[in-house]
Amino acid sequence: MEKHFNDQSTECSASSDSKDCQRVDQYGFERSEDFSYESYEDQMSKHLAVVTRRSKKWSKLLQRTVKLEKNVKVKRYVRKGVPFENRTQIWMAASGAQDQLERNPGCYHSILKAEHDPNIEEVIHPCLQKALFNVLLAYGHHNKDVGYCQGMNFIDGYLLIITKDEEKSFWLMDALLGKILPDYYTPTMLGLKMDQEVLGELVRMKIPAVWQVMNRHDVMWTLVVSRWFICLYVDILPVEVRMKSMVVLSEKSSMNLISQAQGLPEICEHFKQITHGEYVEDCHTFMQKIFMEPGGLSTATITKLRKMCRNRISSAQNPPSH
């Protein structure tokens, strides 16, 4: 694993010069071996200036409303990034998790107090932190179609870092896995396979050079991007840029690397390389380009592609009998 959850980093700050604080970032993830503290300080000074401006705008917006409404202004603010101190509130409201929590008071704690299915309990690693274990255990009983699946621990860990609250993390998990990404973690993983195929279709449309090399070497998308989707980029991209990675693929140097690949090993290595480096470390530039470089991409287009890919996968898994 390239990043690991680590409790001690909560005590670290950007200005600290201790070895422990240099080894992990402010969220508890281990930094890469080529991490440069000097470069990080320069980047953080620019980052904090942007974050301070956006925090003031978010504070004004939230002071004027009791309940967050989904509108053009909120959409624009979200695309530019939600400040750390507002993330729990915004994520809970935007995902519908807050509504679920309020409609089901005490549900999370009732699940934890109830008798547990040993089959679910056994597959969750016992060495996980208590809060992490609790949320995964409760969700496994809440959604038995999913239970527990590898990759969910990364998502849960990240949610706990942000919310610092088991119950809120539980309902955010429910919104993500039950509504926003249905069938990602069910036994068939149909939703996961579908979105990987959708990515392939988008690359074919937007970045044909990359699609052509994948097609020429007969490389299935699941071989190179399944980890991206399973852990929702938590173990892949720097913590502040965990968004969809189409912009990473569309960057010129990335396209050149992949299009020159001579086979599966090189393709896999180049896909790994494009999730590192200066381009993805600058979260603000990344967030700006993610909505610009691939060109227009409407919800209607995604919905249409998902339907097409889902039908194609279902047909392949259940061929008509003769």
TrEMBL record:
PANTHER family in UniProt: GROWTH HORMONE-REGULATED TBC PROTEIN 1, RAB GTPASE-ACTIVATING PROTEIN 1-LIKE
Protein name (record): Growth hormone regulated TBC protein 1b
Physiological role: May act as a GTPase-activating protein for Rab family protein(s).
Residue intervals passing through the bilayer: none
SUPFAM superfamilies from the UniProt entry: Ypt/Rab-GAP domain of gyp1p
Domain of life: Eukaryota
Entry-linked Pfam families: RabGAP-TBC
The UniProt record lists the keyword Ribonucleoprotein: no
UniProt KW Metal-binding keyword: no
PROSITE patterns: TBC_RABGAP
Ranges for region Disordered: 1-21
Compositionally biased spans, kind Polar residues: 7-16
GO MF assignments: GTPase activator activity; small GTPase binding
Keywords carried by this UniProt record: GTPase activation
Stretch forming the signal peptide: none
